[in-house]
Amino acid sequence: MRRKLYGYGGGALLLLGASVLLALSIGSAGFPPAKVWSILLHQLAPGGAEPPWTALEEAIIVQVRLSRVVLAVLVGACLALAGAGFQGVLRNPLADPYTLGVASGSSIGAAFLILFGLQTFIGMYSIPIVAFGTGVLTLLAVFWLARTQGRLGVETLILSGVVVQAFLSAFVSYMVSLSQGVVNEILFWLMGSLSKRNWGHVSMLVPFVAIGLPVLLYYARALNLFVIGERPAAHLGVRVERTKLIVLLASTLLTAAAVSVSGVIGFVGLVVPHVIRLMVGPDYRLIVPLSAIGGGIYVLWADTLARTLLSPKEIQLGIVTAFIGAPFFGYLLKRRKASI
Amino acid sequence: MIEATELTKTIGGRRVLGPVSFELPAKGMYGVIGPNGAGKSTLLSLLSGVLAPDSGHLSLRGRPSTDYRPRELARWVAVLEQDGLPRTTFSVREVVEMARFPFQNWLGDEPGDPASLVAEALRSAGLEPFADRRMDRLSGGERQRVALAKVIAQQPELILLDEPTTFLDIGYQVQLLDTVRAWQRRQSLTVVAVLHDLNLAAQYCDRLLVVKDGAIVAEGTPEQVVTTEMIRSVYGTDAIVLPHPVSGRPQVLLQPATASPPTAGLPSAATDLPTGSEVAYE
């Protein structure tokens, strides 16, 4: 297990580093990777001679591209981690970060603000803050619906999520239909995007990943026992209800955080943990950390394509992730024919 | 080892168990028998700590069962269930290693030599050739042997069996219970087994508890408990009880209402149909 973790983990981190570097040098103003490197190194260790690049070049790399690249990696990590957590607790291959209706919940808040032109009523981060709040409220509603006699049944949870999601989606659609001039803006938010974000958005996600990743890693061994069943897990000393609650809570907060800064980006949380599982097997001690890295790489490349393919126009990120993710997943499914 | 006083448990508004009181000293193989829905599995869930009693007192190794944290209990109590383990992509060895969970720190490390424990458990369950095979490539009987190896690797002092032979053919049934009893004798363990099959219960257990409608209605050695009268009053059916020709333990022969001595040649409808059919269905 350890050797596998270091092998795959090291490889994945290298790939992530190379991807970041490459993505930084791709864009409307082209930079050779060497220049990107020296600008980045200069940020870490300033001083020395007069740098051979302009202040504008430095601002593009550091303020615009680097923040967007880091945000893409964090959003991907949040969604893929949440997907692994949901699949671990719900033990359903179709489970993803949006199964419990959090995406619709966050969308309600965002759509409401956009519809009434309130995007900045409490500052530039109004949409993320409100979307996160309504997402968490949705989770509470789902838990309240699903809780019977102090237990959270897996099937009841999924059904409650479906019900709440259907209700809230109808509401969001209604708001979309109400708005005439700004229809596109709500729809675009729903399809997810990382454009016009900044370091402030990055710093909103950092605490969630910094807490969510260790929490899920801590519960990875319990999630392994869930694979053989809740009762056998209980017989080995797992506090089943507490574990389910904490993992679901952590996963949902990660989802709500990601959705509130980036909109609804589909397929990452579903596909990345499955792909990792097909590669390394069912052990959550590997799936959790590798999903975080893999999700980061996946969203990073999807976003790089989204901003460059039809430049200067941007494609919505959610479209790109599904467009690449679905066929790739289908290919893996067909080729491996492994049970997932 | 186990002392229960006036234990009760209500599930969904229905009193499924109790009040029951009993004492099971350490180092024995105890069988719990009784009809469907009598409360046998509930009793076992109380002993394993998965359910807490509504009232009464249950002490395990001299300490109230509710005082134990789940992990503490799992370090010396193991459960083997009837439906075995699901088809997963974990390998046999990985599943058996899961038994070490209650002994591990959060990194998955434990003092001692877990690898040799796991290897030993695989060997005693006869699973060495399967160790690296995936669980979804095994038959039901083989997966139940993995479940047994997992229980062995947990190194328990108290083993709770919940109808472990239900889905096994007779070959696997005998093999499983032989393994459990040999292990119990060798290490002086305590085994409490809920068994449906009265013949297996009588063959393998030192003492039997008979549970009916949530109460213990009989207790004693197989010879004392497994009798025609007990079977009639607890299961509502007539049976013949004979001593086993080798072990001498009581064995049950079921007696269908329409049973009649075999006749030579094909039975004819005229002679085999019971004349008083209302007797047959009463």
UniProtKB/TrEMBL annotation, chain A:
It is found in: Cell membrane. GO terms for cellular component: plasma membrane. Gene3D superfamilies: ABC transporter involved in vitamin B12 uptake, BtuC (1.10.3470.10). It comes from the Bacteria. It is a multi-pass membrane protein. Keywords: Cell membrane, Membrane, Transmembrane, Transmembrane helix, Transport. The chain crosses the membrane at residues 66-86, 98-118, 124-145, 157-179, 199-220, 245-272, 284-303, 315-333. GO terms for biological process: siderophore-iron import into cell. One of its GO terms (molecular function) is transmembrane transporter activity. Belongs to the binding-protein-dependent transport system permease family. FecCD subfamily. This is Iron ABC transporter permease. It comes from Paenibacillus sabuli. The lineage of its organism: Bacteria, Bacillati, Bacillota, Bacilli, Bacillales.
Automatic annotation (TrEMBL), chain B:
InterPro entries: AAA+_ATPase (IPR003593), ABC_transporter-like_ATP-bd (IPR003439), ABC_transporter-like_CS (IPR017871), P-loop_NTPase (IPR027417). One of its GO terms (molecular function) is ATP binding. Residues 255-282 are annotated as: Disordered. The keyword Disulfide bond does not apply. Keywords: ATP-binding, Nucleotide-binding, Translocase, Transport. Residues 2-238 form the ABC transporter domain. It comes from the Bacteria. PANTHER family: HEMIN IMPORT ATP-BINDING PROTEIN HMUV. This is ABC transporter ATP-binding protein.
